[in-house]
Structure prediction request, 336 residues.
Amino acid sequence: MLVDSYTRQVKDLRISVTDRCNFRCTYCMPLDEYQWIDKREILTFEEITRLASLFVQLGVEKIRLTGGEPLVRQNLDRLVGKLSGIEGLKELCLTTNGALLAEKVEGLKQAGLRRLNVSLDSLDRDKFRRMTKRGDLDKVLEGIFAAKRHALNPIKLNAVIERGVNDEDILPLVEFSREHGFAMRFIEYMDVGNANNWTSEKLVSKKEIIAKIHSRYPLKEIGRAQGSAPSVDYEFVDGRGDIGVIASVTEPFCSSCTRARITADGKIVTCLFSEVGHDVKQLLRSGASDEAILELLGAIWLKRADRYSLERLEAIRTATYDPKSHKKIEMISLGG
Ligand SMILES: C[S@@+](CC[C@H](N)C(=O)[O-])C[C@H]1O[C@@H](n2cnc3c(N)ncnc32)[C@H](O)[C@@H]1O
Ligand code: SF4
Prediction:
């Protein structure tokens, strides 16, 4: 069994299929100009599928396609078809901003996609536009309901909560998800990358989010799915659905983190807050055998010693944390 230096197995793989995005969310990638990856450096579907199969041999059970915005990558359904055929893979998911979902969901479903996460930070059209800079709420809602009609299940809705921006949207989002049978996942605003100018004042903690929801719709804690999921889940006491909170800042889950990431240009990244990735594309494109690539992937995982969120919490507690003290890879590049 392959474990890293804190005895964590590799079980989940996030694959960024592109660093391009049709939104410019203020908390993720607000910059219009950015050093985009050259098209020739982007992994082909064949290269992604080969790497994914090798990761499954190493113990990965779940793959999430992400980006950037995965649906801006042409013919993504072809990739979904290839990945869903990998023997031993238990779950294939997609995280999207939903803007292109209405037109693409049918093809994705036919190719084998069964579950979906859609980012939805507000139900207020103007605020949604302000937060995403380019997003059209109606298009996203159209996509979410199209996914529901095509029976994708579960459909989880992700909202990053930022103080003074959308903390008033928590209850409307809960009510919307309860009414339509979606599962809300609230995400603490994280200091991922450097472009978003994160400060701890903008953070709304899991504790606050849960208290706000619980005072209106009583909750009962369920815990983390499989013991290692990033989200702590709660069910509504009245039986009408569940919600979850991903609290990477205030309740770090480094000790149970089993996730590896592949960037769109073929780097393996072992933590969301990494400064660098490990290049595997060179080996892929030099005609290396599966054994040689497996050896490299295994060696990267064996050496993994990341526990960034635990260290950050300690630094926040002692007021010594400087989010700009090192240059983290932007979320849009490493695959959120
Ligand atoms: C980077 S996005 C990529 C997929 C797709 N473009 C989307 O927005 O769903 C993946 C997830 O990361 C979340 N995210 C981005 N920046 C974040 C931040 N600073 N803190 C917490 N979550 C963030 C997004 O809200 C989204 O749910
Ligand atoms: S959160 Fe998703 S939609 Fe928003 S800028 Fe980042 S990658 Fe794009």
About this structure: The chain is about 30% helix and 20% strand. The radius of gyration is 19 Å. Residues 21, 27-28, 66-67, 69, 95-97, 119, 158, 160, 187, 189-190, 192, 196, 331, 336 surround S-adenosylmethionine (ligand 1) (CB under 6 Å). The mean pLDDT is 95.
